[in-house]
Design brief:
Oligomer: single chain
CATH superfamily of the largest domain: Medium-chain alcohol dehydrogenases, catalytic domain
Bound molecules: NADP nicotinamide-adenine-dinucleotide phosphate
CATH architecture of the largest domain: Alpha-Beta Complex
Mean pLDDT: 96
CATH topology of the largest domain: Quinone Oxidoreductase, Chain A, domain 1
Distance between the termini: 37 Å
Number of strands: 18
Number of helices: 18
Shape: globular
Helix content: 25-40%
Strand content: 15-25%
Length: 454
């Protein structure tokens, strides 16, 4: 893959890229099927991705007619990288085995004793399958992770409803944390010309998820002036959620866990912020019982900041916060949920839901149209990347552990083929127009936090 790196970084033509042979093996980050029990008996917090993630060469898979091979310049860590690497809630080999039982031989390729993970990527197309129409060798792309078969009729209102819908690099193999990836042509989107490889690679998964949850008609479809409570407001999905709320003329209330994150949110333009650590909310009295008086105290704090109860709650921590989220939402409000980081067996008081006509609405990633529209906003400089730190592929375990331990802000980027950071910016004039300070807000903040902690 070194020849591809060199060619891309020196601006080779599509013909030159075509003339470089595809190697037999490529470097990738993966977990091994024979290691899924290594963490048995350990509490979740002690399962260390550095002990399960390997970076080594694996064979290049055969390309289907509707697929492309992308030389991956950069990728990013998502929370699903954490789940795969600690084998929770189930080892992702179960998903690959399901693909292995498919009648399609192309699906069966994925069932291997190793799982190459990663659900984000930016790079350059180096081969296209015979059925690919809209993309060609040399195109600079970012990749979204909605992995669907466009011949499946169940996906044609909304591909997220496709019976066979999967997340690339989590429920499928050959993910983006590698020098090469194999994706369907319907996962491709143009790379933002004003961003580096790693700034481009960090957006698609989290940005599209937040877009669907808040902007799309499939989600909460925010209106001007609405109050939106955002848990983990400087995290991967939270950092984009705040931007969508502000862009839509609504009022975000961000919840975070440190003063440094409060400061970051203020710089992002979110005035109403709650430091949950400082407030020391105890929504759970013990493992089995919640404390309504703590929900009430939280609701009062939100109201004191923005004058009203939230119309929308952007919910993803799950078990720890869900009872509070249902309680604080406004009469007729919506609790938008896409995850359950702290536990998926949820408890809330149903009286507060039905008597106040609230709705719990679920969301999962985004269809191609939503991902495309969210990416367009990044390309136009209206949504900024929230990259706070960048690691080399060989340090993917370290980077994943950072996210697992909640010691990061925004997104953590990974350099794959790119030989260094800040490369791949094709339109510096537009970058200047958007504003270096806006684009690099999270990384400047991350660097500052690093130097203070030393
Ligand atoms: N369904 C989908 O399509 C989809 C897509 C993307 C992500 N997800 C899921 O969404 C979740 C968040 O993803 P992410 O990328 O935003 O992860 P992240 O970058 O780790 O951010 C999550 C944030 O949650 C907050 N948090 C953690 N524990 C909490 C607790 N006990 N109470 C309140 N807040 C807590 C943390 O913020 P503070 O510590 O600052 O409060 C953290 O920054 C993950 O479970 C992920 O798998 C789902």
């Amino acid at each position: 893959m070194n020849s591809f790196r060199q060619a891309i970084e020196t601006g080779a033509s599509p013909d030159e890229l075509r003339s470089i042979p595809i190697p037999e093996v490529y470097r990738a980050a993966f977990v091994n099927k024979d290691e899924v029990t290594v963490f048995e008996g350990l509490p979740t917090s002690e399962k260390d991705p550095r002990n399960s993630l390997h970076v080594e060469e694996v064979p290049v898979p055969e390309m289907a007619p509707d697929e492309v091979l992308v030389a991956v310049m950069a990728s990013s860590i998502n929370y699903n990288t954490v789940w795969t690497s600690i084998f929770e809630p189930v080892p992702t080999f179960a998903f690959l085995e399901r693909l292995g039982r498919s009648s399609s031989s192309w699906n069966r390729r994925h069932d291997l004793p190793y799982h190459v993970l990663g659900s984000d990527g930016s790079g350059v197309i180096i081969r296209v399958g015979s059925a690919v129409r809209n993309w060609k060798i040399g195109d600079k792309v970012v990749i979204h992770c909605n992995y669907v078969d466009d011949q499946d009729p169940t996906g044609h209102d909304d591909s997220m409803l496709s019976y066979d819908q999967k997340i690339w690099g989590f429920e499928s193999n050959f993910g983006g944390l590698a020098d090469l990836t194999l994706v369907k042509a319907n996962q491709l989107m143009p790379k933002p010309t004003h961003l580096s490889w790693e700034e481009s690679a960090c957006n698609a998964l989290c940005n599209s998820t937040s877009y669907r949850m808040l902007v799309s008609k499939n989600g909460a479809a925010i209106k001007q002036g609405q109050r939106v409570l955002i848990w983990g407001a400087t995290g991967g999905i939270g950092g984009y959620a705040v931007q969508y709320v502000l862009n839509g003329g609504a009022v975000p209330v961000g919840v975070v866990s440190s003063e440094a994150k409060v400061e970051l949110l203020h710089e992002l333009g979110c005035e109403a912020v709650i430091n949950r650590n400082e407030k020391n909310y105890r929504f759970w009295k013990d493992e089995h019982n919640q404390d309504e008086s703590e929900w009430r105290r939280f609701g009062k704090d939100v109201r004191a900041l923005v004058g009203e109860d939230p119309d929308i709650v952007f919910e993803h921590p799950g078990r720890q916060t869900f009872g509070a989220s249902v309680f604080v939402a406004k009469r007729g409000g919506v609790i938008m949920t896409c995850a359950a980081t702290t536990g998926y067996m949820i408890e809330y008081d149903n009286r507060h839901l039905w008597m106040k006509l609230k709705t719990i609405k679920s969301s999962h990633f985004a269809n191609y149209r939503e991902a495309w529209d969210a990416n367009k906003l990044v390309c136009e400089g209206k949504i900024q990347p929230i990259l706070s730190a960048t690691y080399m592929l060989e340090n993917v375990g370290e980077a994943t552990n950072l996210v697992h331990k909640n010691r990061h802000e925004g997104k953590v980027g990974i350099l794959c083929l790119a030989s260094g950071p800040n490369m791949g910016i094709d339109n510096p004039e537009f970058r200047e127009k958007v504003g270096e300070d806006k684009i690099t807000l999270f990384s400047r903040h991350g660097a500052k936090a690093d130097s203070t902690s030393k």
